[in-house]
Amino acid sequence: MNELRLRRPDRELADLVLPPGVHAVGRDVRGDMALVEAGQPMLAQLCIDRRGIWMQLAEGARGVHVNGRPVRRMAMLRPGDAIFLEGVELVLLGDEPEAAPDDDAPVDAESRLVLRGVGGPLHGRCHPLEQAVTIGRARDCEVRLDEPGLADRHARLVPCEQGAVLRDLGSEQGSRVNGHAVRHGVLRAGDQLAIEGCRFVLEAPRPAPRNAALAAPGRDPPVLSAEGPAPAGMVESARRLPWLLLAALLLSGALSLLLLYGTR
User: Fold this and answer.
1) Residue 139: phi, psi to the nearest 5?
2) What confidence tens digit (pLDDT) does each residue in 71-83 have?
3) Which residues contact 104 (CB under 8 A, 6 or more apart)?
């Protein structure tokens, strides 16, 4: 992911650039939203790392919303979210999608992409993308949104090797991907698609480790193969095994003799 940005929809102010790290958002001397230094009055703090994007509100902050939902203390954000701070709307911009190819190439049958609703009337619902799906108001659309102003057939999502190709079907307002206005583009896993107040996230399940008991956070699980030499630790343990058995037998024999003759 490239650098994130906070942008006002009216574009009257420059974007607030958010590289990985911790950033405090407040007001500058003119009262405009800005990134403030540590120790200065702030409204919210954003933490960006490989785990995700987190927003924590300052003590006493009120009237904060993300995608129309109130936030009291903390919220996890996604690129494309609309944030309202003290009546000011800021859009969290992520990566802009690549241009869509001219033709739709067939996708591998093993593709398991899912379009999951994260806002609007389809919140929480999942739509598999094993084949092309159409989004719109028409009853025959695979993803049906009965929203005023939405076209009967708004857009189509076609699974591809990189993710899914978004193709606009002649809608008036188009769509937004990670906060960018898009009509045709390639969506990847993790991208957020916003259409007429409804929000979706494209997801691809991660493959589970072959042996979950061997997997540990922060390190790769050991690879055990029937072909080739065994790991050095296993070889050393195998060498010590006969001596341990012999010592156990001798100790057992000594205890037996002690019990047998010690009672006389």
Assistant:
1) -65, -25
2) 999 999 999 999 9
3) 132, 158, 160, 165
Distance, C-alpha 59 to centroid of its chain:
28
At 197, the pLDDT band (50, 70, 90 cuts) reads confident
Contact 186, 165 (CB under 8 A): yes
Residue pLDDT, tens place only, 108-121: 556 689 999 999 99
Dihedral in degrees, nearest 10, Cα atoms 175, 179, 180, 183: -10
Q: Give SS3 for 47.
A: strand
Residues with Cβ within 8 Å of 228's Cβ and at least 6 positions away in sequence, in order, are none
Give the CA diameter of the chain.
104
d(CA 198, CA 120): 5
Judged on CB neighbours under 10 Å (0-12, 13-18, 19+), 96 is middle
For residues 39 and 17, what is the distance between their CA atoms, to the nearest angstrom?
A: 20
C-alpha torsion sign, points 59, 89, 47, 67: positive
- How many CB atoms are closer than 10 A to CB 116? 15
Spatial distance between the Cα atoms of 24 and 46, rounded to a whole number of angstroms: 6
Which helix (H) or strand (E) element contains residue 46? strand 44-49
Pull the structure tokens for residue 116. Answer: 């999951």
